[in-house]
Amino acid sequence: MSKILIITTSLRAKSNSDRLAAEVARGAEEAGHEVEQISLKQKELQFCKGCFACLKTQKCVIKDDAVAIAEKVKNADTLVFATPIYYYEMSGQMKTLLDRCNPLYTTDYRFRHVYMLSVAAEDEEAVPEKALNGLQGWVDCFEEAALEGSLFRGGLNDIGEAGQNPADLEAAYQFGKTLL
Is the pTM of this model over 0.85? Predict the structure, then answer.
C-alpha cells in the first residue's frame, strides 16, 4: 500500500480541519496504508526568497522546519493537504509551505497522488475552488504527480464543530479510505 503524508495547515488549536484530517488518516490506515501526519502548528516556516539556488542544489538556503517537511513530502507516495479556507483561498501557511517545496522540483520525488481536504464557515460549493486551483498550479509543476481529488466540508466555523457532526466525520473517514 501507499505511504501517505497528511499535512494539516491550520494554526488554530483543535481546528476543524485537524479533526477531519484525523478521520482521513483513520480511513486510510484502515484501508491498509501507512500514514504520517504533520501539523504546521509550532513550526517555523519562513517565506521563500525567490533566489532559485534550490534548483541547482536541491536544497533551500533557509534553515527552518520547511526543509524537513519538504523531505517528507519528497518521500511520500500520496500527499493530503488539510486547510481551512480563508477568504476563499488556502491558508497562508499552506501556500508558504508549497513555495518552500520548490527544491523538490528538480529531484526524483516519490509522490504521485495529491489530495486536498478543506473546511470553511461558508457552505457553498464554489468556496474551495480558488484553493484547489492554487494547489493544482503547484501539482502542475510536478509532471509525475496528479491532483486526484478533494473533500470540502462547509458550515464549520467554531472550534471543535467538526467533531460534533457525524456526517462530516464519516465523509472524512470515507475520503481516507479512497486515497491511492
Answer: yes
**Under DSSP, is residue 74 helix (H, G, I), strand (E, B) or coil?**
helix
C-alpha cell at 101: 517545496
Residue located via cell numbers 504533520 = 38
Q: Which residues contact 73 (CB under 8 A, 6 or more apart)?
A: 5, 7, 79, 101, 104, 109, 111
Residue 168: CATH number of its domain: 3.40.50.360
pLDDT in tens, 88-147: 999 999 999 999 999 999 899 999 999 999 999 999 999 999 999 999 999 999 999 999
Cβ pair 162, 153 in contact under 8 A: yes
The whole-angstrom distance between residue 50's C-alpha and the CA centroid of its chain comes to 22
Enter the C-alpha cell of residue 116.
486536498
Rounded Cα gap, residues 39 and 9, in angstroms: 6
Please state the domain count of the chain. Answer: 1
Q: Any idea what the Cα angle at residue 135 is, between residues 76 and 77, rounded to 5°? A: 15
